[in-house]
Amino acid sequence: MNKKIIQRISLLILLFVLPIAYPVTDIHAQDVRVTIRMEKVRMEQVMNEIERQTKYLFGSAENVDVKRIVTVQVVNRPLQEALDAMLRGTNVSYTVQGSNIVLKNGRSEAEAKKPAVISGVVRDAAGNPVVGAAVVVKGTTNGTMTDADGRFSISNVPAGAVLQISFIGYLTQEILVGNQSTINVMLKEDSQTLDEVVVVGYGTMRKSDLTGSISTAKGVDIIKTQSFNALDGLKGKVAGVNIFSNTGQPGGEMRVVIRGVSTINASTSPLYVVDGVVMSDFQLLNPNDIESVEVLKDASSAAIYGARGANGVILVTTKRGDGGKGVHISYDGSISIGTMAKQMDVMDSNEWMAAFKQGLENANAWQGKNFTTDLSQIFTDERLFNADGSPKYNTNWQDETSRTAISHNHQISIQRSGEGSSVGAFINYTDQQGVLLNSYFKRINAKLAYDDKPTKWLSTSVNVLVNHTWGNRTSDNPYGQGALRTMIEQLPFLPVMLDGVYTQTNIIKTNAILNDKDNPNSGYQGFSPEGVGNPVELLKRVYRMQYRTKIFGNAGLTFHLMKGLDLKTQFGVDYQNSRDANYTPFTPRPMINQNSEGSASANNSSALYWQEETYMNYSTLLGKHSINAMLGLSWQGRD
Fold it and tell me: Alpha-carbon distance 251 to 433, whole Å?
């Protein structure tokens, strides 16, 4: 008897001991966060810090070298990441058992390949932190950026991965992670970038000599996105320059803000200078003609333009004759397809009828009415409804008013260079279709550039650009009867055309019903929809044409007075003619909110800007130093 009792007690003790001895992971450890910044310290010091910041204690383990040197850099990260960083590069693994962390020698192959967290600091050659440097796992989209102290932390880095660290003006570095958990990087300056020559006001300078804030974008990068607008192609290419599109119209206007809004009630547009001449309506410029773009972003770099450069200056250099020998003929073309990215979720015919019926039921329940809910008594127009009141048509007006837009761009370039002279001829045709029916933007552009050096002391240059654009725009007014509004509000049970005529809401015939269906003397309630025009008719029959013609160019003479000293005089013009033509046709059935007799209008305007500039430039190199000086006069007029 006593023996059986002892056996039962032993078994009971064993059942209590087994759960304590069996290694399990505490799920609450995932919610614990720690901050540890310790470099080249003994592992036991990191363990003590973890015990200080958490409720966990490290259990003893045989043959684990806790005096080995480790580095852990984690800021407000889960405890698991700190443990992984501490043990990275070792064969030590860990388990969490209740409030204990047990270390043991021997790491499985799966644990060895477990993604890790890599942290570190990025500095330049002078030891200063590099803010905003990109740190990316090569071949993936997993990346981060350095903070104000140059620090970074990137998780899910697989074993054997390579980190790419890059920043504008510095050489990109690639570092094999290996067993490292902390990687400190020193970026070296890109001397090739620093020696690059950029346009600054009335001359050029090396980037390494600049003190102002200037960013550069190449023409080949601008046309990579196959954009039809030079500003659209500049998006994302220059830091600190925000470009917004306030309309989806083909050839629509862009808004440019450089380094934030600097005015409350005045324009935020920067000053555009193309080949040394101020240009209006810069967005009409053919992006295929651009060689490079420099953006002067701060007061010091744009100061030479005075108050005109208060919002920044965008300097554009266009293509000229080829620098090589002989004749070069090239063709560049592109085609793009555009669709409506997403449609608004509106009711179809059955949903509209159900909502109307629900409205009657609500009126009966909450407004003391007693309307009939039999829709066949209200919607009796046999052209649109069946005998039971159900609709015959279900029109998706967003589908009917939109299309798959196919746009294309073609450029032919002819460039020739000889002894001391070069010529470039460029012809472009652009056809940009809008997603909405009958909306488009077309452009024909021709450009001729000629440079010659007839003598050692004289250089000449001529640059002429002729640009003609035309297009049909839809109304951007969300309050009128424009297609952008009516394509959302038009009734779904109306077809696009009925008996060969475009439909409108005023063709719908409905019957009035009794206020109290059980009382014939209760009076009647009528129902008629709001007057909404047909968006397809508006797009196909109403025209809002815009025509723009621009003649732009300059001619200059440069006298080489002595080595490094040049005197240049140039005359430039920017002429633009604008014509807007609006047409609404006469229709026997007047369009809602449109002139019943039809209408046509046109207005013309033109503007001429001219400038004459004469200035002297001196530049020289004295060892590692450079001297640049400019003195000049400028005359400008606008008619």
Answer: 9
Residue 144, SS3?
strand
Return d(Cα 214, Cα 231) in angstroms, integer: 17
Measured CA to CA in angstroms, residue 470 lies from 162, 229, 332, 404, 480 at distances of 52, 14, 22, 21, 24
User: For residue 15, what pLDDT is reported?
Assistant: 30
Residue owning tokens 């989806």: 248
Nearest to 166 by CA among 142, 185, 147, 192: 185
Phi, psi of 303 (to 5 degrees): -60, -30
Query: Alpha helices of 457-527 — where are they, by DSSP H?
Result: 483-489
Distance CA 144, CA 154 (A): 6
**CA dist 291 → 216, 287, 552 (Å):** 11, 9, 17
Global confidence as pTM: 0.65
Q: What would the 3-class secondary structure string for 25-44 be?
A: CCHHHHHCEEEEEEEEEEHH
pLDDT confidence bin for 21, thresholds 50/70/90: very low
For 167-219, write each residue's pLDDT tens digit. Answer: 877 788 888 876 677 788 888 876 555 455 555 555 555 544 444 566 777 77
Say yes or no to pLDDT of 11 above 50: no
Q: Which of these, 234, 277, 282, lies nearest to 548 by C-alpha position?
A: 282
Q: Are 415 and 318 in contact (CB under 8 A)?
A: no
Q: How far apart are CA 419 and CA 421, in angstroms?
A: 6
- In the numeric block, the tokens 């059955």 are attached to 350
The CA distances from residue 487 to 317, 339, 396, 481, 490, in Å, are: 43, 16, 9, 10, 6
Give the DSSP H/E element, type plus range, for residue 421: strand 421-433
Comparing 114 with 164, the larger pLDDT belongs to: 164
Residue pair 435/463 in contact (Cβ under 8 Å)? The answer is no
In the block, residue with structure tokens 């920044």: 312
Kindly state the helix (H) or strand (E) to which residue 553 belongs, with its residue range.
Answer: strand 543-562
**298 CB contacts (<8 Å, ≥6 apart)?**
212, 213, 259
